[in-house]
Here is the input.
Amino acid sequence: MGERPLYIVLIGAPGAGKGTQAALLEEELGIPHISSGDMLREAVAKGTELGRLAKSYMDKGELVPDEVMIKLILERLSMADCQKGALLDGFPRTPEQAKALDEALAKEGKTIALVPYLKVSLDKLLERLSGRWICRNCQAVYHMVYNPPKDDKRCDICGGELYQREDDRPETARRRLEVYFAQTAPLIEYYRKAGLLREVDGERAIEEIHQELRSLIEKARESKQNDCP
Here is the structure.
């Protein structure tokens, strides 16, 4: 009996630390970390039709429409590296997206195993988001509170100019969070009712959060293996 695919949905507002935790788990679990944000930014950078459409929403701190995101993610999940599972970061964001994902997986006899929810207060999220700056040259990331550069305007590594992404500016960050909580809160209830949601305190040290996530994942993996026919 082989292992069943492990599909995990990591929920949390922008700035909650989903990307950091997902990157750690990807390496340890051997399944791809699929970040909807990274996929969208790549499309924007390439100037594709999808990228231009997505940028018009992202620059205003709004969510990209469901039909666009669902198509993008389902195409990604059909790739060979996702056959053993995947760690979804930033998708789904609405119950409609979650239902579409459930239906697509069910056609292949697959299901979501676990939905950890990283909880972080609004004030902490705003501090994390609006303090982030990036080097135009080498893409090094700085934070004016947690990881400040020696010079506010230059990168410590290469001396490149530092800039703030449009969606990290304070006014846009607040708008992003307002949109997130208004439109994504129902998703939390969707997964809570499904018995898959596990709340995790996202204001602790990275390693503490990571250890709790690993424990939750191992329990979910054991449960799925026990469900095998």
